[in-house]
Amino acid sequence: xxxxxxxxxxxxxxxxxxxxxxxxxxxxxxxxxxxxxxxxxxxxxxxxxxxxxxxxxxxxxxxxxxxxxxxxxxxxxxxxxxxxxxxxxxxxxxxxxxxxxxxxxxxxxxxxxxxxxxxxxxxxxxxxxxxxxxxxxxxxxxxxxxxxxxxxxxxxxxxxxxxxxxxxxxxxxxxxxxxxxxxxxxxxxxxxxxxxxxxxxxxxxxxxxxxxxxxxxxxxxxxxxxxxxxxxxxxxxxxxxxxxxxxxxxxxxxxxxxxxxxxxxxxxxxxxxxxxxxxxxxxxxxxxxxxxxxxxxxxxxxxxxxxxxxxxxxxxxxxxxxxxxxxxxxxxxxxxxx
Amino acid sequence: xxxxxxxxxxxxxxxxxxxxxxxxxxxxxxxxxxxxxxxxxxxxxxxxxxxxxxxxxxxxxxxxxxxxxxxxxxxxxxxxxxxxxxxxxxxxxxxxxxxxxxxxxxxxxxxxxxxxxxxxxxxxxxxxxxxxxxxxxxxxxxxxxxxxxxxxxxxxxxxxxxxxxxxxxxxxxxxxxxxxxxxxxxxxxxxxxxxxxxxxxxxxxxxxxxxxxxxxxxxxxxxxxxxxxxxxxxxxxxxxxxxxxxxxxxxxxxxxxxxxxxxxxxxxxxxxxxxxxxxxxxxxxxxxxxxxxxxxxxxxxxxxxxxxxxxxxxxxxxxxxxxxx
Lengths: 338, 325
Description:
The complex is a heterodimer.
Chain A: E1 5-17, H1 22-27, E2 33-45, E3 49-53, H2 60-67, E4 75-80, E5 83-84, H3 90-99, E6 100-103, H4 117-127, H5 133-146, H6 152-156, H7 165-177, E7 183-187, H8 195-212, E8 215-220, H9 223-229, E9 232-237, E10 240-246, H10 247-252, H11 257-265, E11 315-318, E12 321-323, H12 326-337
Parallel strand pairs in A: 3-8, 3-9, 6-7, 7-8
Antiparallel strand pairs in A: 1-2, 1-4, 4-5, 9-10, 10-12, 11-12
Chain B: E1 6-17, E2 20-32, E3 37-41, H1 48-54, E4 63-72, E5 75-76, H2 82-88, E6 93-96, H3 110-121, H4 127-140, H5 157-169, E7 175-179, H6 187-204, E8 207-212, H7 215-221, E9 224-229, E10 232-238, H8 239-244, H9 249-256, H10 296-300, E11 306-309, E12 312-314
Helix pairs in contact in B: 3-4, 4-5, 5-6
């Protein structure tokens, strides 16, 4: 275990039981589960931006929430600064939350509509008993200034409904930073913001990382933004990481067929570009009945008979590049040799 | 050149709210021919959806078309009565809404949606015939024909949007307006739906108006692009022109702020500020408070559309040929 790891997740799993009617409960032999996150492992290095990307329902948000202990996992372990945090309770958990914070996707739903922005941003200080009165006001004003809500005196007294989506997301950044955390989970922080404002928020995140020495776990469905912001990317499909590697590797040498299809589907703002055809069959299967073997084989254009038998493991194909597709990994290493 | 299928002249739509009059669409003109795609791009509140709805006379209360004309095959849409509009919708112009989850009736089978639509416009068609047509349409959009017997909740989001598209083309309309048809969908599904819309456009010879906030999805597939800002059309040009030679400072800023996965080490630049409140729009050009090239005149006068190329229009004083340098 190296010193520069800030977060390590081992075999994280989250199953949600499926609600059934009374009769089904009485007579059913087996229980059904939605396998939201299924055996996910990764590490995040200090100071980097690690992105989990995938389509809706792939478990990326659930993973993010488990990491900050908003949801408890069915099994698996989470280490933060080399200390296991999976089972922390009460006071210990509260101390942990000073170090790790989360920013949610929806800036309209993540604020209390009856609290002024100043109160909301300063609230964590009260909860943790760190500052009150003038000291609190001073810290809140400083931070609002820092995230671009200037003049801070004006924004302190606004209610959330008086602000735009972009401004609210800036306030959410301020709220997550007030306890001076080391690690922030950013769950689709720009997907609900207008295009012309997105870049400003992303740039703010990058600047704050530099100034506050932050590490981000960035969760997104938008690979174009992931490419712009991340250092490393993990691609998730149906609760599992199928490919993980440096940003450059993922975009220049994607090996898993799902990653390839995902990249081909991204729209590029260039009318002269030759569009690649998306060769994926059907829709994402339900997370209740996950296909046997490789969970992607039902939609894969390279699928062979063996693919349906055994669940492939994430294997390191080159330094730091992990792929859960044995047949394509072989091909991929051949490409690299030539 | 053939006369355009749909042409819009100086269209202005206003909402008469209690807090004041909001001009949601301000002096928009464009035209579109058979088998063409027009991409309408704008942020939320730029008036792009109101523009789409006004083409089929569906501007919601308290909105009203206060100026301008919409011609569909030489017929005036704005002066039509309710009955005429009903006949127009579906047969001539059809609308695909953003959210496929809420646009289908949850207690009706997929097939009944088609039967109702077809029988409303063609009362002589029997239920069996209508269902047979529904099966064929579903096949055209890539869904198994047996799905006519399913309820909407049994289909995935992408399939529901395919059903919406099948419903839209059921009566062979000449214009399809798709308002953010893929915003609620995942990228892979998005690219499939957009491919589908364009292959149907070609095989049925429809004109397609694609309304979206995402410049990249219209760049690839549209013939022309209209960029809207605060209700106004700020740039209108063929998509190649918009990409290689954007002229309006907002269009330039928008292109610089979109990440492109094909480029490495791209530097994104943000547009400062945020879009204006349309109850109190800025005087003069609506973009000047965010513009890095604004000068005195921008704050005082509203810029008209300047023609800068054979098919390139831009609403910015920088392109006024008579401007003193």
